[in-house]
Specification:
With 422 residues, the chain is of the alpha/beta class. The chain is built from 16 helices and eight strands. The protein is globular and about 75 Å long.
């Protein structure tokens, strides 16, 4: 053994614990589809046909206020050729999958109710979700937001979670893509407590270990900066013991907690950008998805009001996409057109340039870019996200880059596809 071989062996031995820790704490991309949005529906208004209902309402709004290709292009600032391609795809999307991720809301959207009423709604909503899954009409991702683990709401929240999951298991089981949302998080210990809760619920209901995953809502200053000056978000992700599926920014709770008046509370306020940048750094490399928040300016009223709300929503969605937040919240059926039109335009208008650049990287063609593997991963991830949401077709992507989807996933540093439980 040479001196160099001995040194390498020594360093391998010393860094083996570090290697193992990094592999667990920063596993990288999950290799799964991320929804472009989460739709929140108050639990008392949820029923098995809600996705179809929202899709139909969205189609009606689009037909009424931007029915032609020209009107669509004018409302969202999309060139005519692109507007025509996007319009057809969005109409198809609204017909077959109007909601990608649905959250049955027992928190702010539901409000405080008598215990008997909330108990009944928990069981009824679980039965309706199970019926939707059985009929093949449920969104690919679903879940429940319960009241948080702060002292004032803890007992009620856990009671609802317990009742809902019990009814769901009895009615057919927990569907793939199901996730629990934890709001108003103010301490790492609340995340650790939810890990214990999910473990106990899995045992009680005979679920596989790790089947219940959860999202952490970032809507309190205490989740971004702790009393000791540290960043709790990073510790929260790792305290979740691989159960954390995502970090979701809460626009209005967070802004209000920092004293921002209602008129100026927005996804693009500087305090929102700061919180989301912290979220990005904390989640980088962990496989935890990021979601931006929502706008409460709804597209209702006369055409002028609807168009103004659509333009605002579209601009905010586009802003999020450009900043690496590929998911957001939607609160009203009228927001579906601006969500999907903006997303589809974002992917389609950059498709040719991204595919050409990636093909030149794969084929080692001299071009105007000297791209590194990290950039190739970003280009591949962009194309895969476009395919996942329906903005791009498998065939047009693979034909353009002269590579198949497994090769594209490899370039994107995605692991082989596994059954997704979030």
């Amino acid at each position: 053994m040479t001196g160099l071989d001995a040194l390498i062996k020594e360093i391998d031995r010393d860094l083996a614990p570090v290697d193992a820790r990094l592999a667990v704490t920063y596993p990288g991309d999950r290799g799964a589809r991320q929804p472009v949005h989460t739709v929140y529906v108050p639990a008392d208004r949820y029923h098995r046909g809600v996705a179809t209902e929202w899709g139909a309402a969205a189609v009606t709004a689009l037909a009424e206020h931007a029915g032609s290709v020209g009107e669509l292009g004018e409302v969202w600032g999309v060139a005519p050729v692109l507007a025509e391609a996007v319009r057809d795809r969005v109409l198809h999307k609204l017909a077959v999958e109007p909601i990608e991720d649905l959250r049955i809301d027992f928190e702010d959207g539901y409000g405080r109710r008598p215990d008997a009423e909330e108990d009944a709604d928990a069981v009824r909503a679980a039965d309706e979700l199970a019926a939707s899954v059985a009929a093949g009409g449920a969104p690919p991702f679903t879940g429940i937001r319960f009241s948080g683990l702060e002292a004032a709401t803890r007992r009620r929240g856990l009671r609802t979670l317990h009742a809902f999951l019990g009814a769901l298991v009895l009615a057919g089981g927990v569907p793939p893509g199901f996730v629990v949302t934890l709001p108003k998080v103010t301490a790492v210990e609340q995340v650790s407590a939810l890990v214990r809760v999910t473990e106990r619920l899995e045992q009680e209901y005979g679920l596989a270990a790790g089947a219940l995953r959860f999202e952490i809502q970032v809507e309190t200053p205490q989740s971004v900066l702790a009393a000791d000056g540290t960043v709790p978000l990073a510790r929260m992700i790792h305290a979740a013991a691989s159960r954390c599926a995502g970090l979701h920014y809460g626009t209005y709770d967070y802004s209000a907690a920092l004293g921002i008046s209602a008129r100026y509370q927005s996804m693009e306020h500087p305090v929102a950008d700061h919180a989301k940048q912290v979220m990005q750094v904390a989640a980088a490399g962990t496989g935890v998805w990021l979601s931006d928040g929502s706008t409460n300016v709804l597209p209702i009223g006369d055409r002028a009001a609807v168009v103004a709300a659509w333009r605002l929503h579209g601009r905010l969605v586009r802003r999020s996409l450009e900043r690496g937040f590929y998911q957001g919240w939607d609160l009203h059926p009228g927001q579906l057109p601006s969500r999907f039109i903006t997303c589809y335009a974002f992917y389609r208008e950059s498709f040719e340039a991204a595919a050409t650049r990636l093909r030149e990287y794969v084929e080692r063609v001299d071009s105007g870019f000297l791209d590194e593997p990290a950039t190739a991963a970003a280009l591949s991830g962009f194309l895969l996200r476009g395919i996942d949401c329906g903005a791009l077709d498998d065939s047009e992507v693979t034909d353009r880059i002269s590579a198949d989807l497994p090769h594209l996933a490899l370039l994107a540093r995605r692991p082989p596809q596994q059954p997704e439980t979030r």
